[in-house]
Design brief:
The chain is an all-alpha fold. Helices cover about 70% and strands about 0% of the residues. It is built from 10 helices and no strands. The chain has helices spanning about 10-30, 35-40, 45-65, 70-85, 100-110, 115-130, 140-155, 165-190, 210-220, 225-255.
Length: about 270
């Protein structure tokens, strides 16, 4: 398998650190005790984590770039990020029709986990600028989409698995990961709801089981239809267009020869 971006020890360490902090940033309502200072500032905590996450994602991007983001990989990254960002507005306002997910899924599969994480994060940043969706939720979206796009590169058989078996594996991953993306993004916005506003809002004074029940009810009431639509659209597009897109991406990576150094002839 040809990886456009190889993850070295420093990149892996930065990515692991960022992912660990990201898990805490998303899951703090279930990790912080009711009497903690963090729970007492439930409305402010997402802003704190948003600022921290954007710095850490920037560190990961810089570390990955330092470890081998050559000009060919930069060109491929720019094209795929621009294309994915342009696809995102096509489903705006329509339940779950988000075609960008299937393209990111297939790109992460072909180009590897390092490229996938960078592509997912950059795509969400670019699409936010394109659609005006900049806010405290953006760093969470960047990290969550980085995870989503990194995952296919970690699935088994990147060099050997082809055909229907690979499509079935990618479709299953895309379905589950698209649902997971919606769930973790709910965690980013859920604490912003006032505890008295609804019986499904985060209550900083409630125990973990009670808040977990509230969160499940919140997901069922607000986003399950959208998340299921996204998951199904991802599966349908992967099955319908996956063979052609995978073939095109693999042909492009072979021609680009990412691991071959660029040389210039004199005179």
């Amino acid at each position: 398998m040809t990886n456009a971006i190889r993850l070295g020890p420093r990149s892996l360490t930065a990515l692991a650190l960022t992912s660990t902090v990201g898990v805490v940033a998303f899951g703090w309502p279930f990790l912080a005790p009711p009497d903690s200072t963090l729970a007492a500032h439930a409305q402010d905590a997402p802003w704190l984590f948003a600022g921290l996450l954007i710095l850490l994602v920037a560190v990961v991007a810089a570390t990955i770039a330092e470890s081998g983001l050559g000009p060919k990989a930069v060109a491929m990254l720019g094209v795929l990020a621009a294309t994915s960002a342009a696809l995102r507005p096509l489903g705006a306002g329509t339940a779950g029709i988000e075609p960008m997910f299937f393209l990111l899924l297939l790109s992460g599969r072909v180009l590897g986990p390092g490229f996938g994480f960078t592509l997912g994060s950059l795509t969400m940043f670019a699409s936010a600028l394109l659609t005006g969706g900049v806010g405290p939720w953006l760093p969470f979206q960047m990290l969550a989409m980085g995870w989503f796009t990194m995952g296919p590169g970690l699935l088994p058989g990147p060099d050997r698995l082809r055909g229907r078996t690979e499509l079935a594996l990618l479709s299953a991953y895309g379905f589950l990961a698209a649902l997971a993306y919606g769930t973790v993004m709910n965690l980013a916005g859920w604490p912003f709801m006032g505890a008295l506003a609804s019986g499904i809002a985060f209550d900083p004074h409630a125990a973990v089981p009670a808040n977990l029940a509230r969160f499940v009810a919140y997901c069922l009431a607000t986003s399950l239809g959208w998340d299921l639509g996204r998951a199904l659209v991802t599966v349908v597009l992967t099955l319908a267009l996956g063979p052609a897109v995978l073939k095109a991406l693999r042909r492009a990576t072979r021609r680009a020869a990412f691991e071959t150094a660029v040389t210039f002839k004199s005179g």
